[in-house]
């Protein structure tokens, strides 16, 4: 019998999700996922149910979008507020600052090492809090439809099934998480890291994405073959290991809200995007990198308390109940800045 754990990549478990989807070894897969989240906060899934053709098709659309002239991309501008994550952001505009509130310090950090990435973000079409911002009709026909199709495929195929496995692994009913993730208050982000001078990254004159954690419940990440994602060793703060791209997999990581929800049983690990490992460059430039994260959160009006199996008299609750919307908006306000 094949093990559900296929291999490790950068110290992160690669789990075969097929035995959960077909029902043959659901508990074993669920337990392996929860253990990986306890150990590193990350897991790779193979045989996850979303076709590789659909994934590659979304990467193709991403490349088409980012290859448009800047004046075209700016026809779908991300609002100035860091609380409305929709539309296009140009390189150097957005900066993660992690709990820095002083405007002068924020400005200083952005000037020292701007984030050299560009992004496009969308959500569900009927979101009153963060309405989508698309290119004008007739510009890049089919792009909007492709984004929405991929968005809902991630929700129905990946998010719902993974949440069922997570619940099973934590010893609660399978629908425990699913019943409060019904509205898909999520975010699809297309990311492009342009080719930049290697030395500027090494000297920290520019950055790609500095060390940070995600804020919601879980994140699914599709990455190309270039690499550059690094995950902090939970037992050695400040030491990062490369999360090597594994063909045909999706990386899943726990977010801050899930760590709180599970009374710190699961880890929301810090991660960053840096130089690809073992990079050799004849022209002194990095290769461009593309990735597609899908950030998942409970319905924003959901107020959650600790998972029953994660606290006891010997291990009391660490947190008070809080609504998902309030928590995530507070985290965004504290960590994202824009010019």
Automatic annotation (TrEMBL):
It comes from the Eukaryota. InterPro entries: DIOX_N, IPNS-like_FE2OG_OXY, IPNS-like_sf, Oxoglu/Fe-dep_dioxygenase_dom. Pfam families: 2OG-FeII_Oxy, DIOX_N. Keywords: Iron, Metal-binding, Oxidoreductase. PROSITE patterns: FE2OG_OXY. The keyword Isomerase does not apply. Residues 184-298 form the Fe2OG dioxygenase domain. GO terms for molecular function: metal ion binding; oxidoreductase activity. Belongs to the iron/ascorbate-dependent oxidoreductase family. PANTHER family: FI07970P-RELATED, OXIDOREDUCTASE, 2OG-FE II OXYGENASE FAMILY PROTEIN. This is Fe2OG dioxygenase domain-containing protein.
């Amino acid at each position: 019998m094949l093990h559900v754990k296929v291999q490790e990549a950068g110290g992160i478990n690669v789990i075969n999700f097929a035995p959960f989807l077909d029902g043959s070894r659901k508990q074993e897969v669920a337990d392996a996922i929860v253990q990986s989240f306890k150990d590193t906060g990350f897991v790779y899934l193979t045989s996850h149910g979303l076709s590789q053709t659909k994934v590659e098709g979304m990467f193709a659309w991403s490349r088409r979008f980012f290859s448009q002239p800047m004046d075209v991309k700016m026809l779908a501008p991300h609002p100035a507020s860091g609380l409305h994550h929709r539309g296009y952001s140009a390189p150097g505009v957005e900066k993660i600052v992690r709990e820095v509130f002083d405007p002068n310090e924020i400005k200083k950090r952005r000037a020292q090492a701007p984030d050299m990435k560009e992004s496009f973000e969308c959500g569900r079409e009927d979101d009153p809090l963060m309405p989508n911002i698309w290119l004008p009709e007739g510009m890049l026909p089919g792009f909007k439809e492709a984004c929405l199709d991929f968005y809902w495929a991630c929700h129905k195929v990946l998010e719902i099934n993974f949440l069922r496995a997570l619940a099973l692994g934590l010893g609660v009913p399978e629908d425990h998480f699913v019943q409060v993730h019904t509205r898909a208050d999520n975010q699809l982000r297309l990311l492009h890291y342009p080719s930049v001078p290697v030395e500027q990254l090494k000297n920290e004159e520019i950055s790609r994405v500095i060390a940070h954690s995600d804020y919601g419940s879980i994140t699914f990440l599709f990455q190309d073959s270039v690499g550059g994602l690094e995950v902090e060793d939970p037992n050695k703060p400040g030491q990062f290991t490369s999360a090597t791209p594994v063909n045909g997999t999706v990386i899943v990581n726990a977010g801050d809200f899930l760590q709180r929800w599970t009374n710190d049983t699961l880890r929301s690990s810090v991660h960053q995007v840096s130089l690809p490992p073992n990079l050799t460059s004849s022209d002194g430039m990095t290769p461009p990198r593309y990735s597609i994260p899908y950030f998942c959160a409970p319905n924003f009006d959901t107020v959650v308390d600790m998972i029953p199996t994660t606290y006891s008299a010997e291990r009391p609750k660490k947190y008070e109940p809080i609504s998902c919307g309030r928590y995530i908006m507070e985290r965004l306000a504290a960590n994202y800045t824009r010019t």
